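Long-time lurker, first post. I've been practising inverse folding by hand and with some scripts of my own, and I keep getting stuck on stretches where the structure tokens seem ambiguous. Below is the full token string for one chain I'm working on. Before anyone asks, I'm not after the true native sequence, just a reasonable design that respects the backbone. If someone could post their per-position residues I'd love to compare against what I wrote down in my notebook.
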């Protein structure tokens, strides 16, 4: 297992090869805000990469040169991967990065997006905001001017001719039948599923307020403010004999995790909440002591293509096992691996 990251993470702890990657403060770049906003942001290099850190592009360029040296059939792989650079790019990427960015700005952004600001002015200004003649409204031409939609009939279609024409669903990106007319599809697992006899609680795993998915889970101050816990309806808690602050095991056939309880009336009976993004901490028996719901959810996409994070049935019981949320103590003990503290 190879891990490329800018901080120690659970993936890094489990990795066979660990490569320290520079943060966005340590490389030159430009970006759109999430998601596809109406302005560009210039991201200058603020400091040189700490310790032995390199950018992803530096790492992969160097790997190409090393593979090329090992395998004669991969002739010029390094140059083909990064045509603007030679092998010195691994030590000093600044000039090449500047060349890529200025070319992208002048030949893609300015040419295709009608931007008039020069690359040098963009770097000085720091941002470029698109000037729109009028607000963007989806399907304006179809609604106001009668332009046909990109469908067989030219109208908004509820019936999907594409789905209706599929004969072998195993050869599609779906893998199973999707109705050609919109209708309710029973979840893979739910309180209506026979598996509810064995696992009677429907687990959902929404985004937490104190993390961005798994980002910032290693910030101890945030974990002091918001604890990773499973939220349970008060009536269910009474049946289970647990109260706020008790530690429970949450499990199904896929895995098990250990986490504190938070009891509330602001949740339907039969439904429990375990926020996504906790960094796993496995014990010798494979039980996650940190409370990561990924050990409980299905590894299958929903019909819309997203993963079925909210289709998991679980069982819960009070436990003497210890919840271990202080993962970053382990990380601190290994901080010298990345030498970002030197």
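-- Answer (accepted) --
I ran through it position by position. Result:
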């Amino acid at each position: 297992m190879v891990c490329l990251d800018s901080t120690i993470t659970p993936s890094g702890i489990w990795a066979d090869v660990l490569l320290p990657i520079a943060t966005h403060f340590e490389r030159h770049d430009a970006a759109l805000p999430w998601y596809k906003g109406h302005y560009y942001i210039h991201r200058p290099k603020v400091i040189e990469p700490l310790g032995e850190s390199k950018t992803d592009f530096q790492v992969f360029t160097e790997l190409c040169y090393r593979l090329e040296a090992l395998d004669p059939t991969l002739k010029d792989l390094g140059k083909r991967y990064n045509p603007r650079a030679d092998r010195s790019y691994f030590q000093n990427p600044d000039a090449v990065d500047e060349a890529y960015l200025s070319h992208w700005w002048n030949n893609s952004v300015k040419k295709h997006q009608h931007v008039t600001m020069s690359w040098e002015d963009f770097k000085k200004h720091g941002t470029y905001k698109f000037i729109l003649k009028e607000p963007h409204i989806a399907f304006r031409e179809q609604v106001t001017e009668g332009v046909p939609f990109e469908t067989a009939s030219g109208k908004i279609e509820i019936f999907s001719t594409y789905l209706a024409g599929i004969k072998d669903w195993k050869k599609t990106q779906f893998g199973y039948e999707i109705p050609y007319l919109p209708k309710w599809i029973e979840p893979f697992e739910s309180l209506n599923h026979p598996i509810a006899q064995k696992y009677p609680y429907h687990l959902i795993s929404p985004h937490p307020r104190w993390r961005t998915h798994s980002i910032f889970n290693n910030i101890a101050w945030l974990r002091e403010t918001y604890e990773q816990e499973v939220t349970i309806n008060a009536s269910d808690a009474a049946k289970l004999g647990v109260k706020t602050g008790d530690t429970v095991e949450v499990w199904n056939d896929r895995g098990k995790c250990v986490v504190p309880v938070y009891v509330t009336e602001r949740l339907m009976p039969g439904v429990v909440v375990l926020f996504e993004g906790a960094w796993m901490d496995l014990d010798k028996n494979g039980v996650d002591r940190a409370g990561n719901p990924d050990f409980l959810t299905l590894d299958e996409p929903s019909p819309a293509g997203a993963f079925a994070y909210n289709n998991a049935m679980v069982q819960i019981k009070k436990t003497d096992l210890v919840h271990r949320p202080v993962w970053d103590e382990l990380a601190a003990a290994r901080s010298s691996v990345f030498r970002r503290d030197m």
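A couple of notes from the structure itself: The radius of gyration is 26 Å. Confidence is low (pLDDT under 50) at residues 331-342. Happy to go over any region you disagree with.
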